Amino acid sequence: MMKFENTLEFAKKTDKENPLISYRNDFYIPVLNDKETIYFAGNGIGLQPKGVQDYVLDELENWASYGFVGMDSGHNPWVDFYKKFSQRLAPILGALPDEIVVMDQLTANLHFLLASFYRPETGRKKIIIDWKAFPSAVYAIQSQMQMAGVTLEENLIEVDPREDEHYSRSEDIIEAIEKAGNELAMVVLSGVNYYSGHVLDIKSITDAAHKVGAYSGWDLAHAVGNIPMQLHDWNVDFAVWCSYKYLNGGPGAIGGLYVHEKHYSGGKPLPRLAGLFGSDVKAGYQFKEDFIPLKGAAGWQLSMPPVLSLAVLSASLELFESAGFENLVAGGRDLSGYLVFILKGILNSTQAKPFEFVTSLKDENHGCQISINLGPDGKHKLDMLRNNRILITGFADHTVRIAPVPLYNTFEEVFLFGKILEHILIAH
To answer: 126-130 and 156-159 as β-strands: parallel, antiparallel, unpaired?
Structure first.
């Protein structure tokens, strides 16, 4: 484990020795007042890789040159473009390529999978969610339950945090699963909570859900590209994600979904909302009346994926492949560890408690993101940070999220952030 020091010399020396440092040059760093910002908001919108423009221009040229013929001709036929991404995302998700498809966006994908997996007519109606699950995911779950005629008050279970904590604990979720027993249809949980940055124990929770006969489903918006996962080996039933955070796919980027192979390898296909691009190609283009799904997660597709959005994601994944995902995980752990070290130093250097940690500080309980609550005048402090060219995201309750990303952030930035924050806390 790296031994940290709260000095500029240490930060610069560590950056110089960092094998990932050169990748920062592959990104555009936002500028304010003619100076680069310290951008710790990659958990909201990842930065743009410089290669994006070339990738998008290539597809625009294909469109100009081929028109409709580009669907199945040229060096990158659009009808098959999506297939390349399953293999590329497999090591990031710990899944088989057939279990992955890039398509649509997170909330739509969650609706599609709930339509397949949530079958309350079997008598299993209850769904467990974590505290402060992302609102859009909650809306999707609520609407699916309401359309099925299921009352939310009795059947949607939110696992609250313990006193003086700001996240649902994995062990408390497992207890709620055991209590719900054979009335539980599924858990739909955040792999990494958007508010607290807390990482749940996906494997243990999945095992507990399966023990009572329920499904295990996951919102991986803040997990994909951030923490290591083994969805296939952990036997996770289904998952969804977006690509515009740690995967740097651009604002409103295409998302993706995962379905474990046990749900499509043999037997009757799961019911689903069907579309042409999820159908067997031959059957689809012959306009047969019966829907025959493609094998794997690809069978959940509805429409043609947006080629320009795929081109953006391709530019980012090229950098992931070059750096190696295991190296990115290790680099993110070191950066967030240094951030925690710096923040603890600020707490120890002042008599009054200037802020409170929202994130659990155990290494296994967080990824890149560390959340803190800045107190009653937190909005003013956040404004002061932004005036000092530090870009982080915050909430109305004065909680802010700080997420140094290993592909483009540095130890020096973490050190400078700490100095600026400490100055603001002392002055205000």
So the answer is: parallel
Q: What is the pLDDT of residues 206-219, one digit of tens each?
A: 999 999 999 999 99
pLDDT at 354 (0 to 100): 83
Tell me the CA distances in angstroms from 284 to 104, 256, 372, one per residue in order.
19, 22, 51
Beta-carbon count within 10 A of 238 CB:
27
Structure tokens at 15: 């950056």
- What structural domains and CATH numbers belong to the chain? 8-50+324-427 (3.90.1150.10), 82-304 (3.40.640.10)
Identify the three-state secondary structure at position 240: strand
Q: Where are the beta strands (DSSP E) in 21-104?
A: 31-32, 35-36, 38-39, 100-102
| Kind of pairing between the strands at 184-190 and 35-36 | unpaired
Cβ within 8 Å of residue 173, ≥6 positions away: 128, 130, 159, 187, 189, 200, 205, 208
Give the integer Cα–Cα distance in Å for 204 and 298: 27
Residue 76 burial class via C-beta count within 10 angstroms: exposed 0-12, middle 13-18, buried 19 and up: middle
Q: How many CA atoms lie within 13 A of 224 on its CB side?
A: 30
CA torsion angle 231 236 238 239 (round to 10): -50
426 has a pLDDT exceeding 90:
no
